[in-house]
Amino acid sequence: MLSKTVRNIVPSGTVAINARVFDLKASGIDIINLSVGEPDFNTPEHAKEGAARAMAENKTRYDKVPGLIELRTAICKKLKEENGLDYIPDQIVVSNGAKQSITNTCFALLNSGDEVLIPAPYWVSYPEIVKIAGGVPVFVDTKRENDFKLTAAEIEEYSTEKTKMVILCNPSNPLGTVHTREELKAIADVCHKKGIYILSDEVYERICFADEFVSMAAVSPEAKDITIVLNGLSKSIPMTGWRIGYTASTVEFAKAMTAFQGHITSHPSIISQWAGVAALEHREEYTNMMVAAYKERMEAAVKYLHEELPEVPCIEPKGAFYLFLDISCVKDKLLATADTFGNMPLSGSDSYSKEFVMKLLDEKHVAMVPGSAFGKEGFVRVAYAASKETVLEGLARLGQLVKEILAQ
Ligand code: PMP
Ligand code: GLU
Fold first, then answer.
1. pLDDT at 336
2. Is residue 49 part of a domain?
3. Is residue 337 very low, low, confident or very high in pLDDT (cuts 50, 70, 90)?
4. CA of 313 to the centre of ligand 2 (A)
5. In terms of domains, do 144 and 276 share one?
6. How far apart are CA 379 and CA 370, in angstroms?
7. Has residue 267 been placed in a domain?
8. Substitution candidate for ligand 1 out of 101, 173, 202, 203 with most atoms within 8 A of CB
9. Which residues constitute the domain of residue 127?
10. Among 160, 382, 386, 398, whose Cα sits 20 to 30 Å from the Cα of 291?
11. How far is ligand 2, taken at its centre, from the CA of residue 36, in Å?
12. Ligand in nearest proximity to the CA of 169
């Protein structure tokens, strides 16, 4: 009865774990939730006031499909001030969250059978959206010696005449790594040479502890021509539920995405868009406060891991709010003792990282996401979008579990 497209989709592993946490909490169990990547800060007051003003002034009607001109103008201003990028409002398409912007991009660009390079580990929705749009995800097996960051050489190695696009998540979910200007330039050069477009997912750009964050489109004029910059208000400003994402691209792409989005959703909620205008106007102070808090938690977590849990190394975090922990120390014990795997619909096949997070949830009441959901076995992702004490308690319980498994 169901279409092949839908039957082919693997449900989101991050969303599945979060749903399970909600169920456990509803049954009265107190869970430390370090699974879902959602800021623990509230939407800033000025954004809420922008929404309230819009409602009071009856600004609640249909508007232009690619978004309010006021919001697209504010986005252009942000791109200029923060990223040194010149875009005009006709190059911006505002959508219902970055997820829809990825969907718009894939439908605007891909023909059936076109290949899309996706460095693994990847954010869970990339391969599924590519498949929905008729494309073929091709996973790049990134290397530990590069902290699993995609390199220009890997694009050379994995691309074929069918490769149409590469998706780069920078700062990375789930790795927490950040590409340098030189690394981005090398990737852009090889993509330009080979006629490959770049979808540069920069939703975590403001949460960056590296010396600088560089947008892919800023590394050269050629890079800007082939890059679709993807961003939104869910992470840099905590506005996940308002559902505002956007792309900056060529006018031609923007027109194509607008035509597509015009049939699917029109524009996102006008009220959310007015909240977005206000949020972008006053973003600086709030973002700095949040980033300082994330940095403090990250440093405390890394220190704890180094000092108390050397069995579990972690990729050095430079941005976003994730730690990607190497739990390969428990591999042999878990594979030897596992008889049942959890039955959650996670991306990827059954795996020991999934077995590990199920034990962690059931026995220690801590939620994290298995590496297998991101296409990388042997790891778990910790979202440190929770208080420092909560993150440290979650890691301490993870440490207990590791020690118990190793003692078996
Ligand atoms: N890209 C990445 C890397 C993400 O982690 C997320 C998280 N939801 C998204 C895109 C989608 O964000 P949005 O809430 O704007 O749809
Ligand atoms: N992007 C977040 C995460 O990776 C939110 C969940 C989702 O939308 O997948 O956890």
1. 74
2. no
3. low
4. 23
5. yes
6. 6
7. yes
8. 203
9. 59-284
10. 398
11. 6
12. 1
Tell whether ligand 1 has an atom less than 6 A from the beta carbon of residue 201: yes
Question: Which among 123, 231, 272 is the best mutation to test ligand 1's pocket, defined by most ligand atoms within 8 Å of the CB?
Answer: 123
pTM equals 0.95
User: Which residue type sits at 227?
Assistant: T
Does residue 252 sit in the same domain as residue 200? yes
**Which amino acid would we find at residue 401?**
L
Shared domain for 154 and 271, answered yes or no, is: yes
- The verdict on the CB of residue 234 being under 6 Å from ligand 2 is no
Among 239-248, 281-290, 335-344, which stretch is predicted with the lowest mean pLDDT? 335-344
> For residue 122, which ligand has an atom nearest its CA?
1
Tens of pLDDT along 259-296?
A: 999 999 999 999 999 999 999 998 887 888 999 999 99
Work out the number of other CB atoms within 10 angstroms of the CB of residue 48: 16
Asked whether 103 lines ligand 1 (CB < 6 A), one says no
- For residues 157 and 280, membership in a common domain is answered with yes
Please state the domain count of the chain.
2
Tokens encoding 323: 């730690």
Distance from residue 319's CA to the centre of ligand 1 (Å): 15
Residues 234, 217 share a domain: yes
pLDDT surpassing 90 at residue 22: no
Ordered DSSP codes for 122-186? --THHHHHHHHTT-EEEEEE--GGGTT---HHHHHHH--TTEEEEEEESS-TTT-----HHHHHH
Answer whether 261 contacts ligand 2 (Cβ < 6 A): no
Percent of the chain with pLDDT over 90: 87
Ligand 2 mean position to 171 CA, how many Å?
14
pLDDT digits (tens, 9 = 90+) for 205-225: 999 999 999 999 999 999 999
Task: Give the integer Cα–Cα distance in Å for 249 and 133.
Answer: 19
The sign of the torsion formed by the CA atoms of 123, 218, 250, 227 equals: negative
Atom of ligand 1 nearest to the CA of 173: 3
The rounded Å distance from CA 340 to ligand 1 centre is: 32
Model pLDDT, residue 311 = 96
Q: Which residues contact 317 (CB under 8 A, 6 or more apart)?
A: 176, 177, 209, 298, 302, 323
385 domain residue, yes or no: yes
Q: Kindly state whether residues 307 and 335 are assigned to the same domain.
A: yes
Handedness of CA 30, 204, 46, 53 (dihedral sign): negative
Ligand 2 centroid distance, CA of 407 (Å): 34
For residues 239 and 370, membership in a common domain is answered with: no
